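=== Given protein ===
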Amino acid sequence: MSALVPGAATWGVFWGAWGALLPAVKSSVGASNAELGLALLAIPVGAVPGLLVTGRLIDRFGERALAAILVGFALAVAMLGLVNSLPQLAVVLLTIGATSGAVEVALAAVGSLQEVATGQRLLTLVQAATPVATVLAAPAAGLALALGASVSGVLAVVAVLVLVSSAAAPLARVPRRPAAKDTVGARVRRQGLWRDRSLWVLGGIAAAVLFVENAVEQWGALHLTEAFSAGPFLASLAPAVYMACLAGGRLLAHAIGSTVSDRFLVLLAAPGVLVGVGVAALAPTPWLALVGFGLAGLGNAAAVPIIQSLAGRRADPEQRGAAVSVVTTLSYGGFLASPALVGALAGTVGLAQALGLVALLGLPILALVLRSRALATPA
């Protein structure tokens, strides 16, 4: 098992627990829905600098930077359990966003460096741990609250788990290189990554996949509720089935190794989105809708890990972490834009129709994957 798996798993534990804790957090700080929504904007705002700078830290310090970032994330999670006012919550959520974004890039960048060194596919395995942990942590945190645990107590446990996982990070060794001098030429090369068309194509594919993923996570349960009058448990299966199939697909992609090309595995996202989300949107029963969400999860499973891996493998040795950072930052735009855009569409044409339009994203994914030269890189 990769030494990156514990960090990826505990990162998922936090986000799964956070969803279950959010109503209690809202009550503890006395926030209205509108106030809480504004406070939650601090997470994506804080994530941007974390996404942008972490790749360079990995290029410079390797797995040592990952260990430090996980420690920082653990401290931020612990601080979150201590807030007792809305302003405090907003400030700590900025820290959560920055450190969580840094964890995401650091795991992908170190994994990409290890793939280059070993010639093996690793990120599909590493990133399978996150959705599994997320699905398990949400009901576990909810059960803990039901049994009398406090929000601060649950978050303290999560913080300890993240801190423990940081101890495994130094085992994810990456090849050492002499530190590059910060010459004018080196700075130009770093800035040039943002002008690399292939990275924009890879980032665009990943952004479309994550747009769909967040649409299912945020709106899947509501779709089952509105379309089929599903109860809370049945409705909750929409994101759970998607995440479970996402994890299973990543484990399968890892198991088959290099016997299947990168392009083929990323290409699966196109029919996954078109057919999977399309079936979910048009299904006459909730159970068929769940099948659709599952197909979408299977199709999307390998796309983002492989794209992040390719970004690192294609870059010069001293720029691999920075290249992963560029692609991850671009892809984050799709994830961030999804809830609001799908909500706007739902308000105009209805939620089922909005999901049907989301399914059409499979077409540009198909076109970009078929045309991308970056995806011709051997697995």
